[in-house]
Write a structure and sequence with these properties.
Elements (H helix, E strand, L loop, with lengths): L1 H7 L2 H31 L6 E10 L11 E5 L18 E9 L10 E9 L7 E10 L4 E10 L6 E10 L5 E12 L3 E12 L2
Antiparallel strand pairs: 1-3, 1-9, 2-3, 3-4, 4-5, 5-6, 6-7, 7-8, 8-9
Bound molecules: 2-acetamido-2-deoxy-beta-D-glucopyranose (4 copies).
The site of one 2-acetamido-2-deoxy-beta-D-glucopyranose has 3 residues, from loops.
Length: 200
């Protein structure tokens, strides 16, 4: 009976079966060899860690000379000199802040943190950040780009590292922000703990 079935299979059909069997084998080998590398990529070990600080001196009407940030947009119930009421909701602040290796504002900067933050909730203090670390020092050259929500009353907040250039070509990861100092509404210092999971 078995032999009979075999005999009835035409050579063309056999070829087709052989090809599909080979194709299946190929798929299995490709699949099994791809999965370990896929798995390795998902292991949550940073390829680079970096801790930096940046310092934001907000213009308050009297410090135009050393202010490093300015309110550029305010809701109609506010103005661009003083952050608005209701947890600053609606304010847009542009900054060009020095980045330092330690928490001292007067340490030699290794780059500038440039971008903006917006206050985006009336009920609590929370903001949204989009900025770059732009490096031009012997330690680092290039840039790292960041974006994400900054619920600034939390001790730590995670934002995304969405890319980079130069020494940080194509990097990605997570940056943990913490407020290292906060002086009135004129100065704050953020500690940025970067865990990069893609390094080239
Ligand atoms: C800005 O400069 C003024 C005048 O030099 C100084 O009193 C003030 O402390 C400076 N602010 C910061 C945050 O360094
Ligand atoms: C901005 O608003 C603050 C608080 O409402 C007020 O004290 C200040 O005079 C205003 N400044 C300007 C230039 O309108
Ligand atoms: C980087 O620093 C070098 C040396 O100080 C300077 O010549 C160059 O203009 C700087 N580049 C930028 C983009 O600031
Ligand atoms: C901020 O803190 C609150 C309360 O502690 C917590 O529920 C929330 O998940 C935190 N948010 C972030 C983004 O960490």
């Amino acid at each position: 009976m078995k032999q009979h079935i075999h005999r009835t299979i035409e050579p063309k059909q056999l070829n087709k079966r052989l090809i599909s069997a080979l194709f299946l084998l190929l798929l299995i080998t490709v699949g099994s060899s791809a999965s370990p590398t896929h798995w390795q990529k998902r292991v949550r070990e940073p390829c680079k860690k970096l801790v930096l600080y940046f310092h934001d001196i907000i213009y308050n009407g009297h410090n135009a000379k050393n202010a490093t940030s300015a309110i550029v947009g305010a809701p109609s119930w506010g103005n661009k000199t003083i952050l608005a009421g209701q947890n600053h909701f609606g304010d847009v602040v542009v900054f060009d802040d020095p980045i330092t290796l330690d928490n001292n504002l007067h340490s030699p900067p290794v780059g500038r943190a440039q971008g903006f933050y917006i206050y985006d909730k009336k009920e609590i203090f929370t903001s949204w950040f989009a900025f770059s670390f732009v490096f031009n020092s012997t330690q680092h050259k290039g840039s790292i780009n960041f974006a994400g929500a900054d619920p600034l009353m939390n001790k730590t907040r995670d934002i995304s590292v969405i890319g980079g250039t130069g020494d940080f070509f194509m990097t990605r990861g997570v940056a943990t922000l913490s407020t290292d100092a906060f002086e009135g509404e004129v100065y704050f210092r953020l500690r940025v703990d970067m865990n990069l999971y893609e390094c080239w």
